[in-house]
Amino acid sequence: MSEPLLAILDNGVLWWGLAACGVAQLSKLVIELVVHRRWNPRVLVETGGMPSSHSALLTGTTAALGWVEGFGGPLFGLAAVLCFVVLYDASGVRRAAGLTAARVNAMGEIAKGEIAKGDLDIDSANSRQHGKPLKENLGHTRLEVLIGSLIGPLVALPGLVLAGSPLHLAQALGWLAPIG
What we know:
By secondary structure, the protein is mostly helical. The protein has eight helices and no strands. Helix 2 (12-36) crosses helix 7, helix 3 (53-69) packs antiparallel against helix 4 and helix 3 (53-69) packs parallel to helix 7. The two termini are 12 Å apart.
């Protein structure tokens, strides 16, 4: 196996951060089933919703990085700052963009109703909205960000401490011979 591939497989920080993201994204499917009582696998690839998988990814990766490299180091500091920017953005800018999209979509619905009643001509309505509606579920509420932020370290740290990297796990399971 090539050296770069082994290095990637041995990067527990990366893999456990991604695992935290995956757990958060899969939990959206479970929440959809339990709360809304419907099977909707589209939530696995959509942005927004409970919990924030971006938050889980960043907090899980940042916590794992701190565990491996030390919480007092500059690399952890950089990761923490970037983490805060993403968390703020998810509940601020991206959420505002989603709320704006909802208002624009509502304007299109109002125009359609006015056309149906004969109060608005079609050319005016078309100038308000073209094509399909804008995506509204872009960002997260603060609660969605908070829950995602908790999932990250709760998945990444035990995984890193108990299982290590995928390379260590594969070696422990006998799938790969120990290297070096």
